[in-house]
Specification:
Helices cover about 45% and strands about 10% of the residues. The strands form 2 sheets. Strands 3, 4, 5 and 6 form a 4-stranded antiparallel sheet that branches. A two-stranded antiparallel ribbon has the order 1-2. Strand 3 and strand 4 form a beta hairpin. The two termini are about 40 Å apart.
């Protein structure tokens, strides 16, 4: 029931390698053709990739290994690796994250449930991609593009339930962003294309540039889940709790539920999935003393 979304680390590779010369031969008049390819580099061998392939639990014990340069999560005393083959090593300030990742893998039973590895996936994203300056710059630009279509910047004047929820959850958030970062944020009532002022983009771009890879991974995760740059920023900056961010992200859904009722196996699934995704991001952005 909960396997409705694929996580960022699940990347199946089903296509033939395009860089290899293919030599076709016929073995007999009526036989099928066979082919040979040039030797390719083997795919990265990591626990996440192995789990993705088999979808079965292959480990017995899960643990934490304190090392000189951080904390590693271990499966059968072997360090867990990301899909790119990097050791999933977390700084001491992220020991809560390490504990949560270990808990995710411990709670995988006979069959693997990728949707239940949200902490693993967002931490892997930070390690595999967001320590690279060029990749980080691309992510910043992508996230800034969400400003022009930010959910909370497009509001409606009916029905009454929706107007009430917008005022309750969106208006305080807009005011916080305007005063905290000294920027103009425009709100629209039309779905036609609009854009935020260039000065606003520059100011908020500078805020993103000061984030570390962990905060950037959290920011990216929340923006994609909520379709709102501003909700993501408020969560990463701790203006909103996970529950408050989830309520802000689901204002329109909440309005529909109040009017028409809840759809079983849809609204209830989304309710928990959103909180699971936002919770993992909030934990990743948190540093422990």
């Amino acid at each position: 029931m909960y396997c409705r979304r694929a996580l960022s680390w699940v990347r199946p590779s089903l296509a033939f390698p395009t860089s290899s010369p293919v030599v076709w031969t016929r073995t007999s008049r009526f036989s099928l053709r066979t082919y040979a390819t040039a030797t390719q580099d083997a795919p990265v061998v990591s626990e996440t990739n192995r789990a993705e392939k088999t979808l079965k639990r292959f480990w017995t014990t899960v643990g934490l290994d304190a090392r000189a340069n951080g904390i590693a999560v271990t499966l059968d005393k072997r360090a867990l690796k990301t899909p790119s083959g990097n050791t999933l090593l977390l700084p001491e300030s992220k020991r809560l994250v390490a504990t949560l990742i270990a808990n995710e893998w411990e709670n995988q039973e006979t069959l693997l449930k990728p949707h239940a590895l949200t902490m693993t996936s967002v931490a892997s994203r930070a390690i595999d991609a967001l320590h690279d300056k060029e990749a980080c710059a691309e992510v910043r630009q992508s996230l800034l593009n969400y400003l022009d279509t930010d959910t909370i910047c497009f509001q409606h004047d009916d029905p009454e339930t929706l107007v009430r929820l917008q005022k309750e959850h969106w208006d305080p958030l807009l005011e916080w962003a305007r005063t905290t970062f000294d920027v103009e944020i425009q709100v629209h009532t039309s779905v036609l294309y609009h854009s935020q002022p260039e000065r606003t983009r520059l100011a908020l771009g500078n805020v993103l540039a000061q984030m570390d890879p962990w905060e950037m991974a959290a920011m990216e995760r929340v923006t994609h889940v909520t379709k709102s740059f501003l909700i993501a920023l408020a969560l990463v900056k701790r203006y909103l709790t996970v529950e408050q961010a989830a309520l802000a992200a689901q204002v329109e859904v909440a309005s529909q539920i109040e009017r028409w009722g809840e759809v079983e196996d849809s609204h209830d699934v989304d309710y928990h999935d959103v909180r699971r995704q936002l919770g993992s991001a909030a934990c990743l952005a948190t540093n422990m003393p």
